[in-house]
Specification:
The chain has 13 helices and four strands. The chain is 57% helix and 3% strand. The chain is globular and about 60 Å long.
């Protein structure tokens, strides 16, 4: 038996990794915001200037932020809304920590799995509403600002806004599906999710639109059509894979999934080994990455900065896939080994 609190139980590099990420994530976000509006727009270079402290503080901005969160919280608490039941969570599914804990690691990853006040679930609220909708509003504001500066928004700006609006709209339309994600089931509500949902998502995911405002990119209809096709392919894979998974989880006898081949597990659940989930183990991640490429291409290829999201998201999904692999191995054991033999590729067919 491994000693209690061994490093094997910790994720993200344990306390040292968590401490580094606590500093690195906010610093990276500010670096990207500063570089995006600079002339050189060098992703790997230092920002051309550092703002004065007065530029980083505005009571009106704080009031706007609090008003936005309050509005979203009020909408979240409206009684006339659909109530969906998530997967049953038992004590053993909660994160395990050493008895005395580590304040840095606990603060980063979160000790509490589902912090609530009455029916207000903080993690579920933050997962979709303020950050994702805020991302779309930031994009829209940048589009309107470009129209003021140049007379009309560019085709590249329209594409970025349209692609990302589709992505956010899809997430909100299929809101119930978030209940089965790793964020909800496995991760505590600490700095990682709180900062990620409320700051990282709206301000770094809108990086392409910010870049285009300060670095206009001419885009012709032929290339725009190709980019639209790439995004459509990514969305088709992403939505098809997620819909197939969610349909199977709700009702394995549904005619749309009843003919799919499965592997039985000791837990009583079955693993799909055909359809989208017989192609790779995470086809939804593949669709995500193809869409990420389509969001960056309207910005041209003269700068690396607009491709930060693609690079970051690739690293994120590879890391998340590895975490999911470990959890599935612990949960399904021999059945998971059998599934991996049937479906050897993790995200990209014949490559990874």
């Amino acid at each position: 038996m491994a000693p209690q609190g061994s490093q094997a139980e910790l994720e993200f590099g344990g306390p040292l990794g968590a401490a580094a990420l606590l500093l690195l994530l906010p610093a990276t976000m500010f670096h990207l915001l500063l570089v995006a509006r600079s002339g050189p727009a060098r992703l790997l270079g230092p920002p051309p200037y550092l703002p004065e402290l007065e530029e980083l503080w505005s009571p009106w901005a704080l009031l706007l932020c609090l008003t936005w969160l309050g509005l979203q919280a009020a909408l979240y608490l409206l009684p006339a809304r659909k109530v969906a039941e998530g997967q049953e969570l038992k004590d053993k599914s909660r994160l395990r920590y050493p008895i005395n804990g580590n304040p840095i690691y606990d603060f980063f990853l979160g000790r509490e799995l589902n912090p609530r006040i009455c029916s207000f679930d903080f993690k579920y609220f933050c997962e979709l509403r303020p950050g994702l909708i805020g991302w779309v509003l930031i994009n829209l504001a940048l589009l309107m600002q470009e129209a003021e500066l140049r007379g009309s928004p560019s085709l590249a700006m329209w594409l970025v806004n349209g692609f990302q609006l589709l992505y956010v709209g899809d997430a909100l339309w299929h809101e119930e599906a978030v209940l089965t994600t790793m964020d909800i089931i496995h991760d505590g509500f600490g700095f990682m999710l709180a900062f990620g949902d409320l700051a990282w998502v709206p301000f770094t995911y809108s990086l392409q639109a910010q870049f285009l405002l300060y670095h206009p990119e001419p885009l012709g209809l032929p290339l725009a059509s190709v980019i639209c096709l790439i995004n459509a392919v990514g969305y088709y894979i992403f939505r098809g894979a997620n819909s197939q998974k969610n349909t199977f989880r709700k009702n394995p006898s549904d005619p749309r999934v009843a003919d799919l081949e499965t592997i039985s597990t000791a837990t009583g659940r079955r693993l799909l080994v055909s359809g989208w989930w017989g192609m790779v183990r995470h086809p939804n991640y593949l669709g995500d990455l193809i869409m990420a490429l389509a969001w960056s291409l309207p910005c041209g290829v003269s700068h690396l900065l607009p491709y930060f999201y693609l690079l970051y998201f690739t690293a994120l999904l590879v890391h998340r896939e590895a975490r999911d692999e470990q959890q599935c191995l612990q949960k399904y054991g021999l059945a998971w080994h059998a599934y991996c033999r049937r479906v050897p590729y993790r995200i990209v067919p014949y490559i990874y």
